[in-house]
Amino acid sequence: MTLDELREFGLTRMDDGEMRDFLRNQRTGVVGIPTEGAPYLLPMSFGYDGDKRLYFTFVGGPESRKRELVEQTDTVRFLTYAAQSMFNWESLVLTGRVRRVPEAEWDDIADVLGTAWRPEVFQAAVDTGEIAVYEFTVRDWTGIKHAGLPPGFDTEVQ
Fold first, then answer.
1. Average pLDDT, consecutive stretches of 10 residues, N- to C-terminus, the chain (158 residues)
2. Residue 57 CB coordination number (10 Å)
3. What is the C-alpha R_g of the chain?
4. Separation of alpha carbons 115 and 30, rounded Å
């Protein structure tokens, strides 16, 4: 079924404002980096600048597979979602350009980076210096949501 056909069941597209609001309230998602085979998928926390940029902090040394792959491409996909129930969920898929942020620019984006959720292991990596920051500039995004019960679903007892 197409998205348009699913509207009858309560599924709708998010507009730009809804997608921005959704990103402001999310802290994690999945980055998909292209490879020759299947995409390389990474669960990631992120900071969002409120406009068209996300920031990811990669943990691991310069020999890490994720760094190698992301530096071989300039386009990646990112998925973030929230599912409160089977009738109340949202998802957002973003496609964009990615570039490594030089350490000299980290102070300029410190406020945005500070909004990202961080697992405890992250601090150990920061202490060893085994991190890299990447900027994801959104080129295209699509958001869908299902909020509430589908039309025709009667919740009142007769």
1. 69 93 95 93 93 89 83 93 88 96 93 82 69 93 83 57
2. 20
3. 18
4. 17
